Amino acid sequence: MTDSATYPSLKDRVVFVSGGGSGIGASIVEHFCRQDAKVGFVDVDEKSSRELVAAMTDAGYHKPHFLPCDLRDIEALRGAIAEVRSALGPITVLINNAANDQRHDIDEVTPEFWDDRFAVNLKHQFFAAQATYPDMEAAGGGAIVNVGSVSWMIGQGGMPCYTTAKSAVAGLTRALARDLGPKNIRVNCVVPGWIMTQRQIDLWLTPEAEEDLMKSQCLKRKLYPEDIAKAVLFFASDDAGAFTNQSYVADGGWV
Predict the structure, then answer these.
(1) Largest CA distance in the chain
(2) What is the pLDDT of residues 8-36, one digit of tens each?
(3) For residue 68, pLDDT beyond 90
(4) pLDDT of residue 81
């Protein structure tokens, strides 16, 4: 992990991260811990999540508060948010990160699968915001960062439910920014390109795919989770106090 900027406003800030156990989410958790924030996170991957908690605790940071949670269960999500609030204090930063880019063919999609993919990739973002914004309002302000995807911008095929849900994250961001702005709550979206998480490397990265990516990106290097985590830190911090209602594309110049 390379050095990052230090944001004094994030010190001791209570942050809730969805999907924080691996990939981009784990890097987000780690980066907030390194800012001395108090981090609560949920994930379905208990093994990786507990390993991350141990690593951050051993490094001397505030111990992250991990709760296993399937975000398709909104009541479980609400319960996890309440438990983090009880353990760490009022939540003033929300990072809506959790998603799953499962590939699927048009002819395979049933109404049930469609609803399931929207539950995994979109629905929980709204309900997490609904459950946390009162804390932010009471504190005089806060920040919500939604994580999107360039998949719909580049017209990627092979996963229509995912790309449709991710396009809706941009609309959700703008809607929440408008409604919550009077409460001094900023809402932005960070839009990753192809980020080399272990999942992506294991499932999709081939020499041919990498060659095509390097032709498409302006930057001729692969992007990694920390590239996204650093952008998320900025939008969560008071340094981004004038930024809201924005979708910030972090894709190496692919789109």
Answers:
(1) 51
(2) 999 999 999 999 999 999 999 999 999 99
(3) yes
(4) 98
CA-wise closest residue to 142 among 105, 195, 180, 168? 180
Where in the chain are the domains? 8-197+225-249
* CATH (residue range 8-197+225-249): 3.40.50.720
Evaluate whether 14 touches 88 at the Cβ level (below 8 Å).
yes
pLDDT (average), residues 116-131? 98
Q: Is 7 part of the annotated catalytic residue set?
A: no
Single-letter amino acid, residue 20: G
pTM above 0.85, yes or no: yes
Q: What is the pLDDT of residues 215-242, one digit of tens each?
A: 999 999 999 999 999 999 999 999 999 9
> For residue 31, what are its two tokens?
């980066």
How many Cβ atoms sit within 10 Å of the Cβ of residue 167? 15
- Rounded to the nearest 10 degrees, the angle between the axes of helix 225-236 and helix 23-34 is 50
Q: At 155, is the pLDDT very low, low, confident or very high (cuts 50, 70, 90)?
A: confident
- Strand ranges (DSSP E) for the chain? 14-18, 38-43, 65-68, 93-96, 142-147, 185-192, 246-250
93 and 14 Cβ atoms separated by less than 8 Å = yes
* Spatial contact of 149 and 101, defined as CB atoms under 8 Å apart: yes
Q: Given 7, 162, 224, 248, which residue is catalytic?
A: 162
Separation of alpha carbons 24 and 147, rounded Å: 10
- Measured distance CA(1)–CA(23) in Å, rounded: 13
Please give the structure tokens belonging to residue 151. Answer: 């998949």
